[in-house]
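Page 37, top half.
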Amino acid sequence: MLYLNHKISQSLHFKIHKSSNPEILLYTVLYLRCMQVHHSVNNLPPFKNAVITIGTFDGVHLGHQQIIKQLKEEAANIGGETVIITFHPHPRNIVTQNKPVYLLTTLQEKISLLSAFGIDHLIIVPFNKDFSEQRPEEYIINFLFEKCRPHTLIIGYDHRFGKNRMGDYHLLEQYGKQLGFAVKEIPEQVINEVTVSSTRIREALLKGDIATANTYLGYPYFFEGMVVDGNKLGRTLGYPTANIIVQDENKLVPSNGIYVAEAQVAEASIVNSEWSIERGSGVSPFSIHHSPLLQGMMSIGIRPTINGKDRTIEMNIFDFNEDIYGRTIKIFMCAYLRPEEKFNSLDALKQQIDNDKENSLEYFRKRKD
């Protein structure tokens, strides 16, 4: 099965690290540089025998990875290019605005993950009300056919599109025969797995069940934020922390609790550099600048021992004393340690943090073995 396991995801994409397998390293770096990202459906390049699939691909989890595998196999069979069409913002955040969807991956994260899987082209369609209200026939002719020129369209049996979601797989087959492109079905079992995986990952993260989330993802769940000034309580207790603000309000942050985690800190020289998705890059400053992966533990919560009210994210990085205020940090969720608790004193809190550190170090020792 095609997936990024914990070791590969750390050593290849999120951290361009010395690998025991130079071929895998070269493979991944090559694809990180080669995937073309298109932020508009206008002026797309001519694709070679385009094999296309369509979806949100939020999380790029194991279910999605089966679709990617099918896409790549079909493209290899006909000497074609793989093309994924996705949407931004998430369609449900436009169509049903009263029920926001919290994302497993931001747009930049999605680009990076799809790059690592060797996709040739990613088309990011700006999703809005006008696009959602196209008649299904307009969607097929004016968008899919005229803009993308598919050789083969690989799509789920339950795929719906166009105004009021009236378009379906059978309509695509009908127009495919008229316009000269093949339509192939993603097996129902795979589609169901995608749906189940997305739901289970979100539910697991909201319960602090990192093991289940990471299993369904095929890699450690991660998020990015900016390191900001805090109240220095951690420093007072002997455990200085990086206080993190997640800048994408739609990114799903796991439930309150104490976690084993790893971190990457962007190089100071590129904090304000433009590595944005607008340039079509799937490579973040973490991979470009070989940012090391740092072990530690993390707290998410309101800090009840000091009667806190606001939710905070704090990362204690072991054996680390650099000034990283204002820098971007990426957190990888490794394991859940315990729920957030209110202690009777700071001394009692410190004793528990000592235990948390020992439990975190034990986790890393066992993983190494």
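Page 37, bottom half:
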Amino acid sequence: MPVTKKSLDNLDKGKKFSSNNQPKGRGRKPSALRFVKESGLSVTDVKKIINSLIWDYDASELAALLKDKKNPVPMGMAIVLGALTDDLEKRRAVNFDKFMDRAHGKPVQQIDVSERSSDIPDDPKERRRLMERIEAELGLAQEKVSHAESD
């Protein structure tokens, strides 16, 4: 948290944190994703809410929904709205990406496994022939014979 003039003024007045003197909004703000997971919303509910918020409203309408004291939005929507407006203010898409993944699933990542990654043959006979050829090139075949004779 950045140090501001107001926070320094509080220190000058002798206000210290204690069990009796705590800030009003203490603690970490609830995570939108954690709320969605713990609320028991179905995947269909989440998809509908997120799609509606992302595609049916512009930024000023989302901010107005959050500020409307006469008709407050449900807690879950308030958390999602807050996360999305926070993304807009900070010009990032962290929460937007998370919500899109939640609503539509992460994009499929394809891995091409059709190309052989090894020159070692699958057939045991071919592998044995390859091993014999390698041993012959390295001179290991003669060493095996000479070791076997000396034993």
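Margin note: The mean pLDDT is 76.
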